[in-house]
Write a structure and sequence with these properties.
Shape: elongated
Largest sheet: none
Strand content: under 5%
Helix content: 55-70%
Radius of gyration: 22 Å
Number of helices: 8
Order of helices and strands: HHHHHHHH
Number of strands: 0
Distance between the termini: 35 Å
C-alpha cells in the first residue's frame, strides 16, 4: 500500500482548517468520519496499525510511518523501480503515466524527490518501441521538454491508434470480413 502524497497533504490542511471553521462538535464528527473512512479503506490485517489512533491525522501518520519509511534501503528500492520501469507492449499510455508519476510521488514522500528533468527523461526512455518515432520527434525540438508535453503527445498518439482500430473493425464488419483483435 503506497501513501498518496496529495491525500496526506490534504489531510494535514484539513486538520488545521477544521479547528478554525467549525464548532467543537462539528470538529469531532469530522475527525471521526475521517478515521472511519481510513479504517474502512484498509485491509483487515492492516487495522492493528491504526486501532489505537486518536484521530484521522494520527492514523494517517501511523500508516505513513509504516509504509513510507524514509530509510536508505526504501529510497534505493523505489529509485531502482523508478529508473528501471519499462512500458510493456499493449500497456495503456495513461496507466503507464500514472505508474511513473506514482513512483515519483512515493520517492518524494520518502525524502528522495525526482527532478522534473529526471521525470521527463525516465518517462521517455521507458516507453515501448512503438513510440520511438514520437520520442525522436520530441527529442529534436529546440525548446525544453516539459512533463505536460511529453505525456500529452503519447496520449494523443494512443487515442489515434485506438480510433484507427475502431474504424478498421467497423469497416471490416461492413464488408463482411472478420474483426482484427
Amino acid at each position: 500500500m503506497g501513501i498518496d502524497v496529495s491525500a496526506a497533504d490534504w489531510l494535514r490542511s484539513q486538520a488545521g482548517a477544521l479547528r478554525y471553521h467549525a464548532g467543537p462538535n462539528d470538529v469531532q464528527e469530522e475527525v471521526s468520519q475521517g478515521l472511519a473512512i481510513i479504517s474502512l479503506a484498509m485491509e483487515d490485517l492492516q487495522l492493528p496499525l491504526v486501532r489505537s489512533a486518536k484521530d484521522a491525522f494520527d492514523a494517517w501518520s501511523r500508516l505513513e510511518g509504516h509504509f513510507e519509511k524514509k530509510s536508505l534501503a526504501n529510497k534505493l528500492f523505489l529509485r531502482r523501480r523508478f529508473f528501471t520501469t519499462m512500458m510493456a507492449e499493449g500497456d495503456g499510455v495513461l496507466e503507464y503515466i500514472n505508474k511513473i508519476k506514482t513512483l515519483a510521488e512515493q520517492l518524494d514522500a520518502v525524502g528522495a524527490p525526482v527532478s522534473a528533468d529526471d521525470l521527463v527523461i525516465t518517462y521517455l526512455a521507458s516507453l515501448n518501441e512503438s513510440y520511438q518515432f514520437l520520442i525522436t520527434a520530441l527529442e529534436s525540438r529546440a525548446d525544453s521538454l516539459t512533463w505536460e508535453l511529453v505525456t500529452a503527445r503519447p496520449q494523443h498518439e494512443d487515442l489515434k491508434r485506438k480510433g484507427r482500430v475502431l474504424v478498421t473493425t467497423v469497416v471490416n464488419k461492413d464488408i463482411g470480413l472478420p474483426s482484427v483483435p
